[in-house]
Amino acid sequence: MASLCFQSPSKPISYFQPKFNPSPPLFAKVSVFRCKASVQTLVAVEPEPVFVSVKTFAPATVANLGPGFDFLGCAVDGLGDHVTLRVDPSVRAGEISISEITGTTTKLSTNPLRNCAGIAAIATMKMLGIRSVGLSLDLHKGLPLGSGLGSSAASAAAAAVAVNEIFGRKLGSEELVLAGLESEAKVSGYHADNIAPAIMGGFVLIRNYEPLDLKPLRFPSDKDLFFVLVSPEFEAPTKKMRAALPTEIPMVHHVWNSSQAAALVAAVLEGDAVMLGKALSSDKIVEPTRAPLIPGMEAVKKAALEAGAYGCTISGAGPTAVAVIDSEEMGQVIGEKMVEAFWKVGHLKSVASVKKLDKIGARLVNSISR
To answer: Domain total for the chain?
Structure first.
């Protein structure tokens, strides 16, 4: 079965009481995860390819959703990465080659061991026990790097799904998430709040990492929900933004964030966009340390709320700001106000888009049979 990745025992967070309290602080481990071992083969017999070529798509994602740091995320429709994968006799059996990278960036490495798509593809091939076939991969980036929209996860998800599809879809979604996590661990840390929704679609709660336990949260199909995504011309590398996080937090903030995360989950299941927005806006631990690192972010949030958004926060590690509303028309108005605030206060150009929830996740776009 697939190997599991474990929470690092290093670097504890101290939860302290801000008022008089003679008791010693309560400690909890920081959300840093390291892979203890690589994935293992899950299929008894090596499958043969059922297609000579496949093309897949994986959507952008919004991680954290305010108080859900490292355990809540969702997929958004219309933005994402594409992977084209081919059976290639010129590539050594059991290996993969990255032939071309196009789209928003071409500066990524074509070495599959140093590329998000390559790492996830290799992990998926290992799970399937592929030893007799060589593959070549083309990556088309629809997402910019360091945008806070799960760029690395989209590449990893599209690649993992492509390998699974070309060999007849032998693996389930949780196995594909584990393959994607091999990639995420090398880029920004072992956290599934981007890769899980990128593969599974919709909202996903990561209940546990040891063992990995994923809980899809179904937003009612008869309710409307729109994400206003405003991305400034500013890069916020995930590793840098994670380094800014506090190692010590007041117990009262821990309790507050826990209650807001619970409210957010309830809002998703009930289709309550208003409560979802309120909870999403209420993070007292992560957002306050990251917002000052993104020029104009605090003003952008204020502008969104004043324009009628139900809530606004940083998408993932940033710099994209995300607001929620239940009307696409209102979303366009909110987006304009957010763009204006980024320019006036942060002196940053930005682009706004209004997107629905992607309920499908990474999927096959087309294929060529053998």
So the answer is: 2
Which residues form the domain of 130? 51-218+359-369
Active site residues: 184, 238
Amino acid 341 reads A
Report the predicted TM-score, pTM, of the whole model to 2 decimal places: 0.88
Distance CA 250, CA 9 (A): 21
Model confidence at 123, pLDDT cuts 50, 70, 90, reads: very high
Claim to verify: residue 65 and residue 197 sit in the same structural domain: yes
197 and 247 in a single domain? The answer is: no
Convert the pLDDT of each residue in 186-196 to its tens digit. Answer: 887 788 999 99
At 148, which CATH number?
3.30.230.10
57, 184: one domain = yes
